[in-house]
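Intended use. Records like the one below are meant for learning the mapping from a protein sequence to its folded structure. Do not use them to infer anything beyond what is encoded.
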Amino acid sequence: MLSKDFINGIQYELQNRAFALKAITRISNRVQGRPEHALGSSEDREFLDDMIAQEQVQIELMELAIKKNTVKLNQKMISLLVTTNIKFLYRNLIIRFKKLMNHLISLKV
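Structure written out for the chain above:
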């Protein structure tokens, strides 16, 4: 049985995560499509999107933990690990590809 203090602590943490999610979403929406607040690059926009997704996942994981739904919690954790690794590999592949293309272009000059 979970103690009252533990449940209160988790609920407080969920409120913090929900606030962070709302704040990041507001920032993201505020700068979207406004040249005076344009983000430095598409990577900046991607970073904000990743922050939003991260907060959403953390809230979902905490809710599953509170409900003691270990089956769904484990499935979500595995899915998160696989997705994160795929994104990491994809981003590194893109970075390496861009460097290679820049190198090849410089050789033609």
